[in-house]
Amino acid sequence: MSALKRHKRKLALLGVAAGALAAAALLISLLRAGVLHFNYPTREDFPVRGVDVSVYQGEIDWPLLAGQGVDFAFIKATEGSGMQDSRFADNWAGVRRTHLRAGAYHFFSYDSPGESQAANFIRTVPVTPGALPPVVDVEFYGKRIRDPATREETDAILQPMLAALEAHYGQKPILYATYKAYMLYLKDAYPDNPIWIRDVYRYPRLPDRREWTFWQYTARMRLPGYKGPERFIDMNAFNGTLAEFEAFASGAAR
Fold first, then answer.
1. How many angstroms separate the CA atoms of 74 and 105, rounded?
2. Catalytic annotation on 79?
């Protein structure tokens, strides 16, 4: 091969590499901007969709948000034994003026008793006819990311909390979890509590082959209807049809 041909071939390979890098950079940019998503389940497969929100979405125009193919909303209420989301009351009142099925969630703490965490939630979230079951969000924060609690320590907090919530609201609480939290604390346990699993990269399959009820499939959706410091909103799917969702919601409320 002549020197000229080798030079042309090298330039061509460099061009291909540069194009691939540019395409990868564009893909990453679109994913970060919430334009593209690793997961985007079809309406045919998952017709029932919902959002979950907190103070970070700021003021929410609930009728506008509800008009975008949304069927349910989970709203942050509390965290640990003493924190309340400052927008919970407004969000709870606002969502009740729409067709959306609504539920409230609690961010679980490994560092305070389950009884006092349940009391915090009960003080904040009224018993509301037609509401979805309360949710306990089991994931990691701060030092617990690198130094997670043991399963025994977690059960000692989580079990009395779930019992107190069920006794007050008459519903089995939903358990939200990342895969890491599920593996450490929920696998092969709490069989009667519906599971809400987070997987923003692929279709979720639980390690104990259990069926999940809700799936958080992206944390980077952008929808009109809210204005807060967080420009993205979490999207979720129910594992079933609209009729099955209504049956779940109605059955859970009994």
1. 6
2. no
What are φ and ψ of residue 248, in 5° steps?
A: -60, -50
pLDDT per position as a tens digit, 144-202: 999 999 999 999 999 999 999 999 999 999 999 999 999 999 999 999 999 999 999 99
Catalytic option among 52, 71, 85, 234: 52
**CB-neighbour burial class of residue 26 (10 A; exposed 0-12, middle 13-18, buried 19+):** exposed
Q: Is 139 a catalytic residue?
A: yes
| Per-residue pLDDT reduced to its tens digit, 131-154 | 999 999 999 999 999 999 999 999
How many Å apart are CA 168 and CA 163, to the nearest integer?
Answer: 9
Q: Assign 195 to helix, strand or coil.
A: strand
DSSP code string of 33-83: TTSS-S----TTT---EEEEE-GGGBEE-HHHHHTTT--EEEEEEEETTTE
For 118, other C-beta atoms within 10 Å of its C-beta total 25
Q: Contact, 70 vs 236, CB < 8 A?
A: no
Distance, in Å, from the CA atom of 239 to the CA atom of 51, rounded to the nearest integer, reads 15
Identify the active-site residue in 90, 111, 115, 139.
Answer: 139
pTM given for the model: 0.85
